[in-house]
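Hi Prof. W.,

I finally got the Copper-sensing transcriptional repressor CsoR prediction working! I wasn't sure whether to trim anything, so I left the full sequence exactly as given:
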Amino acid sequence: MTNIKYFYMLKEFPEEKKQILITLKKASSHISKIEEMVNEDKYCIEIIQQMKAVHGLIHSAMDKTLELHLTSCFKEGMKSGTEIRRKRLIGEVIQVTKINNQ
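And this is what came out:
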């Protein structure tokens, strides 16, 4: 097993971390409301609109987290990592970027 050092830099950005958590809590609250709407057999379009709102919130949190990752974890890993580690970091970013763009 490879000993890989990861950089956990969200703690270095307390205000951004707080905003990400607020956004995720909003999404969680929306999901609870959507579950109620489904249980109450609300109109499908209204449910879908709420789902789109959750999707937007999650996307926003993902974008901010990725931005922080690139400016901290990724940057530090690229400076201090081996060639194998740098390739792995690049692969991770490519993978999550593909997911984020879906």
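The helical segments are 14-39, 44-71, 73-80, 83-100. Does that look reasonable to you?

Thanks,
D.
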